[in-house]
Amino acid sequence: MAKSEIYERMETDASFDALKILAAELPEPLMLMGGWAVNLTVNKSYTEEHNAPYLGSRDVDLGFHINVDASIEELRKSNFSRTLDILKRVGYWESGTSRFCRIINKKTGRTINEKEASDIPLYDLFYLYIDPMVDRIHPLNNEVFKIKPIDEPLLADAIDKGKMREIIISGKKILMPQPEVLLSMKLSSFPNRTKDDKKVKDACDIYALIWHSKRPSREVINSIKQDHSELVDQVRDHFPEDLIIKASYHLGVDPEQFMGVISQLTK
Description:
Layout: H1 9-25, E1 30-33, H2 34-50, E2 60-64, H3 72-76, H4 79-89, E3 93-95, E4 99-105, E5 111-112, H5 114-117, E6 125-134, H6 141-144, E7 150-151, H7 153-160, E8 164-169, E9 172-177, H8 179-189, H9 196-211, H10 217-234, H11 241-251, H12 255-262
Helix pairs in contact: 2-8, 2-9, 8-9, 8-10, 9-11, 11-12
């Protein structure tokens, strides 16, 4: 059964190209989270089964460790601070309170500014977002930075317990959370998703992390139940029939197979 992409290939290709460029530019070790961390975790197994790559992501989620006892001067010299400066230098601008963005003209593939974008139809534009996420918010964050990064306690837990693994992208060391941590993060965000595409993508990622992590699914799930059983409990009623059908379609599996994997969470 063939799968169908959730996002346009141009968008996911541009997002992954941006990740590779950032990996080359940003200070090591870069921590990768979100959809691309899932993709790089499950892609080999998924491709072997489906003869096609796993779903790509539109956004790039970067993780950072913050020492909450650091002085303002130390905070200004941190990898997080250096990364924000580099993002601005390579063409990203602050979007809202916690994100960075650049705009790409889909027809030309060229990065454009907001003024140029105002003359182009929205459907010909791709807003590429970079989301910096931290394990803890520094109490002096607002005194040093313009943005307030998203804080992810599960990242703090992964760092503290050594649940990170290393890969190489663009010749640079990249750290990613272990599969059970990525799955915990997805289970945490999933019930609160309001955008349809995000909800479907999370459902696909949950399936893939259980089934294609190159680790026994029961081992991954038991690890979550041991450390974060509340995350499993809160998603039990969040797989209505229409979501099951959409996620199955994009994964290229039968709805029965999809729920057979998802139901392992509740066993």
